Amino acid sequence: MNPFCEIAVEEAVRLKEKKLIKEVIAVSCGPQQSQETIRTALAMGADRGIHVDVSGKDYENLGPLQVSKILAALAKKEDVRLIILGKQAIDDDCNQTGQMTAALLDWPQGTFASQVDFQEDSLKVEREIDGGLETIKIKMPAVVTADLRLNEPRYATLPNIMKAKKKKIDTVKPSDLGVDLSPQLEVLSVEEPSQRQAGVKVETVEDLIKKLRDSGRI
C-alpha cells in the first residue's frame, strides 16, 4: 500500500475509534491482486472493502481522472460523507485524485492534511503549504488528502490479519457504477533527452567570449 494511503487508512480508523464515524470502507481499483491491498487496510481496522475490478487495457490506462470518477460514483452509491485519500501516488506522484474527486462531487477539500479535527458538521484541517501551516474549516461532506505528518500508521498484528480474512470484500466493475474509463490522454512517444556535451574550462574572460562567439551563443 502507498505510504500516504496507509496514513489515510490510519486516520479513518482513529476517527472510528473516537466514535466520530460509523464505518470505514477501503477501496482499491485494479486487477485481482488489488485485494491484497484491501486486506491490509482491513487488518489495520477497516470494516469492509470494495474492489473495483479493472484489468487489461483499462488498467494500463487507469489514471487519476478515471480513479476519481470511480471514487465519486462509489461515494454516491454508499452515501458517504468523508473520503480520505493519500495526497499522492508514489509511482507517478500526480497528486490529482483527491482534488479531482472533490471537483466531481462538488465537495470542499482539505489537501495535504497534517491534522484533522471534527467540529459537528464541519472539519478543521491543518494543512502543510510552502510557507508553513494553514488552517481551514470545511463543511461536510468533504474530501481530505493525508500528508506524512498526519499520523503514524499502526502495524497490522497477526490476530487482525487473521480477522481481516473473514471481513467482506465486494467486487464491482466500473460499468456497474456507470463509469467510463476511456483515456483522455494519449502518450505519443517517450524519448531520452539529448546527451549533454562535456564542459570546457577557459583561462581568461577573452577565451570565454571567443568560445561563446564560436558556438553562436553571442
Note the topology.
Layout lengths: L2 H15 L7 E6 L3 H11 L3 E6 L2 H5 L3 H15 L3 E5 L10 H9 L3 E11 L2 E8 L2 E8 L2 E5 L11 H7 L4 E4 L32 H10 L4
Parallel strand pairs: 1-2, 2-8, 3-7, 4-7
Antiparallel strand pairs: 4-5, 5-6
Helix pairs in contact: 2-6, 4-5
Can you put this structure into words, describing what you see?
Pfam families: ETF (PF01012). Belongs to the ETF beta-subunit/FixA family. One of its GO terms (biological process) is amino acid catabolic process. The protein is of the alpha/beta class and 218 residues long. The protein has 7 helices and 8 strands. The strands form 2 sheets. It has a 5-stranded mixed sheet, with helices on both faces. α2 (34-44) crosses α6 (158-164) and α4 packs across α5. The mean pLDDT is 93.
Descriptors for this entry?
218 residues, alpha/beta, five-stranded mixed beta sheet, three-stranded parallel beta sheet, 7 helices, 8 strands, electron transfer activity
Alpha carbon gyration radius: 23 Å
Mean pLDDT: 93
Main-sheet strand order equals 3-7-4-5-6
Our estimate of the beta-strand percent is 15-25%
**SSE sequence, one letter per element:** HEHEHHEHEEEEHEH
Number of helices: 7
Structural class: alpha/beta
How many strands appear in the DSSP assignment? Answer: 8
Low-confidence stretches: none
Biggest β-sheet description: 5 strands, mixed
CA(first)-CA(last) distance:
53 Å
Helix content: 25-40%
